[in-house]
């Protein structure tokens, strides 16, 4: 057997899995998006652009998703980076494993239970009640975009921490020592050495969190209280309640397209920043 044949044989299981679990379902969704809703719901074969013309009816869901998904990703990054930096660079090696386990601990509990816990914290008897005691009254947190933002940052923070931690943990500490020996301040060392070297971890963490947030539906449903809808919530409504599979497929296909465009633009930006980093390193 030739080398090409061996390579194809090795790739066959992954290729078959990719075909069955991604390509075929996506093709079905695209086909359904050009159909019509049946009299009793479901799907009726047709070829029409009516479903795509009705997309503005779900503009609120798209707007919330396109605003809160990037905002949640950015907020997760701003919180996760200092934590990952401390764990990788500053933490006592004897306690590093314990601290990493503490980051993982929330994943030991269902996201559903953790989201319901935030209902109490953000509800009238939680944080607003504490604010009322110090004279800040009439604060409403639950069923708002802010509550959803808090929930998604809390839920997805570990997925941002670990890629950055792994990248920083592999950083050659001698580079930091050399920078200090050359007279660079800690802040300058961070900006010129640590931050550029951690870009791959940042890119991976942001990509993981952003893609998952674009399809999120549980946290907005619980903490949004039916007032803050994501596209995921719209899809649940269209497929399971109104049974408008054609329109739901059009919404899903549009979401996939938006994700492809966003991820492609993001990866190009990361590659450009990486190229600039290499150019600076060679100077």
From TrEMBL:
On whether Transport is a keyword of this UniProt record, the answer is yes
Q: Where in the numbering of this chain does the ABC transmembrane type-1 domain appear?
A: 62-268
The topology of this chain with respect to the membrane is: Multi-pass membrane protein
Instruction: State the CDD domains in the record.
Output: TM_PBP2 (cd06261)
Localization of this protein: Cell membrane
Pfam families assigned to the protein according to its UniProt record, in alphabetical order: BPD_transp_1
InterPro entries xrefs: MetI-like, MetI-like_sf
Which PROSITE patterns does this one have? Answer: ABC_TM1 (PS50928)
Residues passing through the membrane, by range: 7-34, 66-87, 99-121, 141-166, 202-225, 245-267
List keywords of the entry alphabetically.
Cell membrane, Membrane, Transmembrane, Transmembrane helix, Transport
Family the entry assigns: Belongs to the binding-protein-dependent transport system permease family. CysTW subfamily.
Annotated PANTHER family: INNER MEMBRANE ABC TRANSPORTER PERMEASE PROTEIN YDCU-RELATED, INNER MEMBRANE ABC TRANSPORTER PERMEASE PROTEIN YDCU-RELATED-RELATED
Q: What is this protein called?
A: ABC transporter permease
Species per Swiss-Prot/TrEMBL record: Albidovulum sediminis
């Amino acid at each position: 057997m030739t080398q090409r044949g061996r390579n194809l044989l090795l790739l066959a299981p992954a290729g078959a899995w990719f075909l069955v679990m991604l390509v075929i379902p996506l093709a079905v969704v695209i086909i359904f998006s050009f159909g019509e809703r049946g009299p009793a719901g479901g799907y009726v074969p047709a070829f029409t652009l009516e479903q795509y013309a009705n997309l503005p009816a779900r503009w609120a869901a798209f707007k919330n998703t396109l605003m809160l998904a990037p905002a949640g990703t950015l907020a997760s990054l701003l919180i996760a980076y200092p934590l990952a930096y401390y764990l990788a660079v500053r933490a006592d090696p004897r306690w590093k494993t314990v601290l990493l386990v503490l980051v993982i601990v929330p994943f030991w509990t269902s996201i559903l239970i953790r989201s319901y816990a935030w209902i109490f914290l953000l509800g009238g008897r939680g944080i607003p009640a504490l604010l009322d005691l110090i004279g800040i009254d009439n604060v409403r947190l639950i069923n708002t975009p802010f509550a959803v933002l808090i929930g998604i940052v809390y839920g997805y923070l570990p997925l941002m921490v670990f890629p950055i931690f792994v990248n920083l943990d592999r950083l050659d500490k001698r580079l930091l020592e050399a920078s200090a020996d050359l007279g660079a301040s800690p802040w300058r060392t961070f900006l010129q050495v640590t931050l550029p070297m951690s870009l791959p971890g940042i890119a991976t963490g942001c990509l993981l969190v952003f893609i998952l947030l674009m399809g999120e539906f549980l946290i907005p449903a619980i903490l949004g209280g039916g007032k803050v809808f994501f596209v995921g919530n719209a899809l649940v409504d269209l497929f399971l309640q109104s049974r408008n599979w054609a329109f739901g497929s059009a919404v899903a296909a549009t979401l996939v397209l938006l994700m492809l465009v966003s991820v492609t633009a993001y990866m190009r930006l990361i590659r450009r920043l990486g190229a600039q980093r290499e150019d600076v390193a060679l100077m």
